[in-house]
Amino acid sequence: MVHANVLTIRDYKGISWVSLDLTESGDVVMIAGPNGAGKTSVLDALAVGLNGPSAVPTARPIRDGAESAEIVIQLDDYTVVRKITETGTTLVLRDKFGVKISKPQDTLNSLIGKLSFDPQKFQALKPKEQLDVLLDVLELDFNPAELAAQRATAFDARRDTSRELKSATAVLDGMPHHADAPEAEQSFADAMAARTAAQERNQKIKQAHDNVSRAEQDLETKRGAVFLLKEKLAEAEANERAAVELAEKCRAFAASAPAPVDLTALDEQISNLETVNAKVRANTAHNSQAATVTALESRVAELNGIMTGIDKIKSDGLAAAVLPMDNIGFDDDMTTLTIDGVPFAQVNTGQRFEASMYISAKLSKGLRIMRISDGSLLDQETLRRVRAFIEKNDYQLFIETVGFSDDEDAWNIEGGQLATR
Fold first, then answer.
1. Is residue 79 within 8 Å of residue 2, measured between CB atoms?
2. 137 and 123 in contact (C-beta within 8 Å)?
3. Which residues contact 419 (CB under 8 A, 6 or more apart)?
């Protein structure tokens, strides 16, 4: 792991010349002094030396009256020499054997991760940007944005389908259903045809009985004529035999004819036909609505399954991820970083600083240096958390405080130079 051992600054911003032997300091390097003394210039010089001028954009990086500025940082394995002139900046990087490195900034970048040098930059990010940084650290095996979009789509579909299901169920509950109705509507024409056929048969049966009555009457007439018309006896007897034969045939037909059909039931069926068919139509509509309700219930269940699967992918992925801190997490929609379930922006300063440092450490590629400006604004609890982190993780912290410090490990800056040690 890489620490800074010596920091030398010449003519950079408010510093005329300062050289700090950091091997004499502990893990916390306190840069103290009154406002305007050059404290911030020391921390900025450290950032610019490692990252280049873009790390701390400024219109006048060279101290007034000087022609150039120079920042020298001796690390464990490298020595960084960055010179700034009016026309630009140069960087020379040598290893511990004095060998010049061909791609100095690339080498430094391999040690410095995004935001790893200044954890306060993490706190300044917007919630969505903070979340993106942490997700980059976790290297999840799923895309949180895509997963959130899929869940939102399924949630909206389930909501709309549930509303449709509720409406369809209300319609179904209000529809009549007749248990005594046949499955299909009956044909009025078929019922009338059946009645007509039955009526014609009844007429034929009646006609046969009428024929019997007429034949019997005719027989009696013929028998009376026998007595009255002796002279026509032969003819009468022939007629008698013929009448007898006809009567027998009619009797035989009448005896074999079926009983008359009772038209009452058919008439009742015809009169109730529209009522019955109305019930059939109602049942058909009821069954169709019931099928719609069943389909919507299945869709809601399916969408519930989709959302459950999405939630499981998220929970499994987060469970497998190695978080910088055990109490760091996300809200349900994975849109906001949380600490102990509370949005990052709502926790106290100490918790935010601690989380920012752990996340910055996770982003680090080897450099074990952090900086905190405005250290005077930190309360005792925040400072305790900061020091605990530095000690636990073998970091070197540069922290700026306002006013001279009596701390033996503090570096007091005054007028752009080192005051007392």
1. no
2. no
3. 33, 404, 412, 413
Determine the 3-state secondary structure of 310 from DSSP: helix
Contacts of 37 (CB under 8 A, 6+ apart): 14, 413, 414, 415, 416
Phi, psi (degrees; rounded to nearest 5) at 328: -85, 135
254-296 pLDDT, tens per residue?
788 788 888 888 888 888 888 999 999 999 999 999 999 999 9
Q: What is the largest distance, in Å, between two alpha-carbon atoms of the chain?
A: 178
- Residue 386 is encoded by which pair of tokens? 């900061």
Would you say 363 and 137 are in contact if contact means Cβ atoms under 8 Å apart?
A: yes
Question: Cβ distance 50 to 73 under 8 Å?
Answer: yes
Name the percent of the chain lying above pLDDT 90. 34
More confident residue, 128 or 39: 39
CB 335 within 8 A of CB 128: yes
Q: Which residue's entry shows tokens 């404290």?
A: 39
Question: Residue 1: which of 399, 395, 397 has the closest Cα?
Answer: 395
SS3 (DSSP) at 83: strand
Q: Express each pLDDT in 67-91 by its tens digit.
A: 999 999 999 999 999 999 999 999 9
∠ CA 27-382-415, nearest 5°, is: 60
Token pair recorded at residue 61? 């990086």
Say if residue 53's pLDDT is above 80.
yes
Tens-digit pLDDT profile for residues 169-225: 999 999 998 988 888 888 888 888 888 988 999 999 889 888 888 888 888 888 777
Sign of the alpha-carbon dihedral angle for 197, 198, 202, 208:
positive
Say how far apart CA 8 and CA 19 lie, in whole Å.
4
Instruction: Indicate whether this model's pTM tops 0.70.
Output: no
**By C-alpha distance, which of 354, 364, 355, 365 is closest to 330?**
355
**DSSP state letter for 89:** E
Q: Is 19 exposed, middle or buried (0-12, 13-18, 19+ CB in 10 A)?
A: exposed
